[in-house]
Design brief:
Two copies of one chain form a homodimer. By secondary structure, chain A is an alpha+beta fold. Chain A has nine helices and twelve strands. Chains A, B: Catalyzes the ATP-dependent phosphorylation of thiamine-monophosphate (TMP) to form thiamine-pyrophosphate (TPP), the active form of vitamin B1.
C-alpha cells in the first residue's frame, strides 16, 4: 500500500474535496485562507550532510511550496520539532526563519518535543483572493503544460551530482511564480515534489483530463546523458517547482520563467513521446 | 535543559510576543486568526491501552484546547501522521474527525508519513473578534483565579484510577467555556495541560503578577486522601481545563462551571496556603 491508497481511505472520512489540493481551503468571506502541513524526518527526508540550518530551511520550504502552488501569499508558519538533541533547535529555527522571511512569511511559533529521530512538521497558512486561487481541477483540453525551473536537479543532487546539492537541500518556494501564473490566467497548478509524472497523474485525475508531452521540449540538466536527464526530469523527486496549465492565448506568462512541455488532452491518458508515461516517482511505501 | 529553557532561546530568533501565548496571533483586520500546533508520539504521550480512535481524538483535542484558551472558535484542523503501521490511520482519522466535530471544527486535511514510532502533529486555526481575545498577559491584582472542572483527574487516570481513564485519553476542549470566560470579562487565560502550578508560573510571568491560592477552595477528586488529591490538583498534567483570571465584579461568569481557587497579587510570588508553590508539573527534560 502506498500513501495514495491510504489517502483514498481518508477521503471516505473527511470528504473528497478536502484532500484534492496541496492545501485545505477555508473561505474567509472576502478571500480564501489556505493551509498545509508536512512531516519530515531524518532517516527518510534529510540527506546525510545537511546542516541543522538547512534542515530548518527545507522543512519550511516544502510547506511554503504548497501555499505557493495555490497562488496564495504565505503568512504564518508554525513548526513542531521533535528533537533527538536539544542543541539542534537553534540552527533549525534559524533556517526555518530565514526561509519564511525570504518569501515574506513569519515563523510565528510551534511546539518542541523530544523524539528518538529528528522529526519536523511545518504548517503554514496563506491568503488568496477568491478569483485568484488555482486548484488542481481547472485544466482544460488544449491548455499548455508548463513547468518552472529545471526539474530533476534535486534527484541528481541526491545521487551525487555536486552541482545540484543546493537544489536538493534548500529548495526555493515558488511563491512569486505561483502568483504570476494566477495573474497570467493559469487554469490548474500544483508543485512537483513527488516528481512530474506523479504530479501529472494527480492533476489529470482532479481535472478529468490527460496530457501529451513532447520530450524535445523538456528543459534538461546539461552535461549528462540525455536519457538519464529525461528520467530525472520526469521521475525525480524533491524539486519544488510548479507545474501549471495555461491557455494558449495566455502564453507566455509575464513574470515567470517557464517551459512548455506538452498539452492537456481530452483523452485521459498521459503520453510522453507517443508512449504511456510510467507511474513512477516518489511515494512512501508500506510493505 | 527543559523545553522552557529551549523556548527562551527560540524567543531570541522569532520574537518574544510570538511565543508567549498558547497560539500565534495573526490580525485579519476585522478579527484575529489564532493558530496552534502540537506534536504527540507513542512512547511519551499515548498511555498504553488507548485505541487508535482515542489517540486521534487526543491529538486533535490538545490543539483545539489551545484555540479554546484564547477564547477563539476553532475552524480547521490539519493532522500530520507518521505511521508505524498504515492500518492505524483509519481509527486515528475517525477519532480526530469526531473530536473536531464535537466543537464545530473541521478536519480539513493533513499529511501521511511513515515513522518508526507513531507520531501525530495537529495544527488548528480559530477566529476571535479583536476585543474578545484573551491572552496570558492581562491578569490584574485583585482578580479571582478560576479553573474549570476537576483538575488532577488525568494524572489520577494515568496512575491507575479507573474512574478517570477517560479524562486522560479523551479530553474535552473547553471551547464553550473559553468563549464564556471572554464574554464574562476574564482578563487572562490559558489551558492547564502541564498542570496548574506550571501554568500559574507562565501566567504570572506574562502578566507581571503573582498568585495567592487558598487550598480550602480547591475542587478535589473525591475518595482519595486529601494531601494526594491536592498534589494531583496542583501538579498533575494532562488535564485540558482552563485557568482564567476574572475581576471580582464579573464573578460568577455566566455559562461556565468554575471554581475560584485564589486571587491575583501585585507581589510576583506564587503562594498556596501561605507557602511558596513548588515548580513542579509536566515538562520534557533533556539529559
Amino acid at each position: 500500500m502506498d500513501d495514495r491508497l491510504l489517502l483514498d481511505r481518508i477521503r471516505g472520512i473527511i470528504g473528497e474535496k478536502e484532500t484534492e489540493d496541496d492545501c485545505s481551503v477555508f473561505d474567509l468571506g472576502n478571500r480564501f485562507l489556505v493551509m498545509s502541513t508536512d512531516m519530515l524526518h531524518e532517516t527518510t527526508d534529510f540527506p546525510e550532510g545537511m546542516t541543522d540550518y538547512e534542515i530548518g530551511w527545507m522543512a519550511a520550504a516544502v510547506t511554503l511550496s504548497d501555499i505557493a502552488s495555490m497562488a496564495a501569499s504565505p503568512a504564518d508558519l508554525l513548526m513542531a520539532v521533535g528533537l533527538d538533541r536539544p542543541d539542534r533547535l537553534i540552527g533549525i529555527t534559524e533556517g526555518a526563519d530565514a526561509c519564511c522571511r525570504s518569501v515574506g512569511a513569519r515563523l510565528a511559533g510551534g511546539d518542541i518535543d523530544r523524539h528518538a529521530e529528528l522529526t519536523i512538521v511545518s504548517t503554514a497558512i496563506g491568503f488568496v483572493n477568491h478569483e485568484k486561487i488555482i486548484r488542481r481541477s481547472g485544466a482544460k483540453p488544449g491548455d499548455l503544460v508548463c513547468v518552472t525551473g529545471l526539474p530533476g536537479r534535486a534527484q541528481a543532487g541526491l545521487e551525487g551530482d555536486p552541482r545540484f546539492w543546493n537544489n536538493l537541500i534548500t529548495p526555493i518556494p515558488r511563491v512569486r511564480e505561483g502568483i504570476a501564473f494566477s495573474e497570467g490566467g493559469a487554469t490548474a497548478m500544483m508543485d512537483i515534489s513527488d516528481g512530474i509524472a506523479l504530479s501529472l497523474i494527480d492533476l489529470g485525475l482532479a481535472s478529468g483530463v490527460g496530457f501529451s508531452l513532447d520530450p524535445s521540449l523538456f528543459p534538461l540538466i546539461p552535461d549528462i546523458p540525455a536519457t538519464r536527464a529525461e528520467d530525472l526530469f520526469l521521475f525525480g523527486g524533491g524539486d519544488f517547482e510548479l507545474l501549471a496549465t495555461v491557455p494558449v492565448e495566455c502564453f507566455p506568462v509575464a513574470g515567470v520563467d517557464t517551459s512548455v512541455i506538452g498539452v492537456v488532452t481530452q483523452n485521459r491518458d498521459i503520453i510522453s513521446g507517443g508512449a504511456p508515461l510510467p507511474r513512477c516517482g516518489y511515494a512512501h511505501r508500506w510493505n
